[in-house]
Amino acid sequence: MSTGEELRDRSLVLPSFSDGELEKAVMEVKAIMGPSADKIDEETLTWYVRMRKLDVDETVPRLTRYQDWRESGYEGIEEEQVATELATGKAFLCDDCDLLGRPVVVVDASKQVVYDRDLEASKQLCVHLMDSALLRMQGTGSETLLSIWDLRGFGTRNADISFLKFFVDCMFKYYPKRIGQVLLVEPPFVFQPVWQVIKPLLGKYSSIVRFVKVSEIEYYMGKQIF
User: Cα–chain-centroid distance for residue 51?
Assistant: First the structure.
């Protein structure tokens, strides 16, 4: 088995459907949602339909929730709006993709200090990076991204449970199955209580989380990025 095949086996992959099946389900969703469906880009709408395995009744309420969330202040977040957060280096979109061609979002958890952060600004940065990763996917054949969390130097001051719960919400509600894999790099012992809180929230998707050493990053990226 090649390295690429091994990585795919360990990642989240959505099922495929025929063009006819997918188009029929998308049209049904649009018919039910009416004009509100026009506010959602075609790629996102199609993704939700695939994510719910063409089940229109399950797709519509999830898309409605997604649109309501976007309109609550998380739509079209530009780089200049999160420039201050980006400058901290706490999270960024990597210049290189991984060996599967997936965009890579890197988080330096040691730079997210709970008592010194603006939670809403952190959420805005998260959304901006996720949207930027999705834009990078277009035309590449990639459908999911890789999220790498550098936990070296992580301490109790970095245990931002509120932000982590928002991140989990993003994984489930707003970018469902878009994160194909999460790598936690060398988490210290103090991270364990945090993981015990977050793991149950992930449910079965905790299987896409892997604890790795810095030296193992090359296996995913083809080179060392730290």
Answer: 14
pLDDT of residue 11: 57
Prediction pTM value: 0.91
Joined together, the tokens standing for residue 111 give: 């730079």
Looking at the DSSP bridge assignments, the partners of residue 104 are: 146
> Residue 44 class from Cβ within 10 Å (0-12 exposed, 13-18 middle, 19+ buried)?
middle
Tell me the helices (H) and strands (E) count for the chain, helix number first: 9, 5
CB-based contact 201:161 (threshold 8 Å): no
Residues 205, 125, 102, CA angle at the centre, nearest 5°?
50
Number of residues written out for the chain = 226
Strand order in the sheet with 209-212: 91-93, 104-108, 145-150, 179-185, 209-212
Looking at residue 150, the DSSP 8-state letter turns out to be: E
Task: For residue 91, give Cα distances in angstroms to 53, 158, 181, 187.
Answer: 32, 14, 16, 17
What would the pLDDT profile of 176-185 be if each residue is shown by its tens digit?
Answer: 999 999 999 9
For the stretch 10-41, pLDDT in tens is: 556 677 889 899 999 999 999 999 999 999 99
Return the pLDDT at 141.
85
Report whether 48 contacts 60 (CB < 8 A): no
- Contact residues for 205 (Cβ-Cβ < 8 A; gap 6+): 12, 171, 172
